Amino acid sequence: MTYYDEISTGYEELYEEEQLKKIKVIKQYLKPEPEDKLLDVGCGTGLTTEPWPCKRYGVDPAKKLIARARQKDKIEYKIAPAEDIPYPDDYFDYVVSITAIQNFSDIKKGLEEIKRVGKDKFVLSYLKKSSKAPMIRKIIDSMFDIKKEIEEEKDFIFFTFD
Ligand SMILES: C[S@@+](CC[C@H](N)C(=O)[O-])C[C@H]1O[C@@H](n2cnc3c(N)ncnc32)[C@H](O)[C@@H]1O
User: Among 29, 70, 71, 139, which residue has the least CB neighbours within 10 Å?
Assistant: First the structure.
């Protein structure tokens, strides 16, 4: 069982307010069309999957968080890590990953998978305070064409579109 499985019942109480602040920032730029397909990688309980008015999908390796996400929202949530995303190449119009990258077991592989399943629109965020933050930034810079970067209270947020 992962740390996030262990705290699954209290996850939203602990983090909802913090995560919704980030969503508010991202919403200024991420405006999908109803027919667009959007994948949330490291979706947890779905707090960061639910807000988008389009076809939504979520993956996360924590079974209990996915169970909670499925209770709230009858969309396609799959138990899977970023390092092995169960979708074909170029499948999604948008791929987002909010405050999860610092938790991937293999950050480079996870970001490669995110890039593989997406077309060209990505929103990637990670905790500023993570000891892995400098390394994550280097990998993102080397792999993605970043158009906008926002320093939010807790996260760095990167966009590959304007
Ligand atoms: C801080 S939570 C963020 C969850 C959600 N995006 C939100 O903002 O509420 C970090 C998430 O990363 C997930 N995670 C851990 N290892 C992962 C991996 N290898 N691939 C994808 N997600 C992972 C955890 O299960 C957890 O749901």
Answer: 71
CATH number at residue 129: 3.40.50.150
| Structural domain count, the chain | 1
Whole-number Å distance between alpha carbons of 95 and 93: 7
Structure confidence at residue 73 (pLDDT): 93
Nearest CA to ligand 1 atom 27: 44
What range defines the domain where residue 87 resides?
3-17+34-159
Mean pLDDT per 10-residue interval, the chain, length 162 residues: 86 93 98 98 97 98 96 96 98 98 98 98 98 98 98 98 94
Sheet containing strand 148-151, edge to edge, reads: 76-79, 55-60, 37-41, 92-97, 118-127, 155-159, 148-151
Atom of ligand 1 nearest to the CA of 2: 25
- Output the residue whose Cα is nearest ligand 1's atom 10: 100
54 domain-assigned:
yes
Specify the pTM.
0.97
Find the helix or strand (DSSP H, E) in which 19 lies: helix 11-27
pLDDT for 18: 96
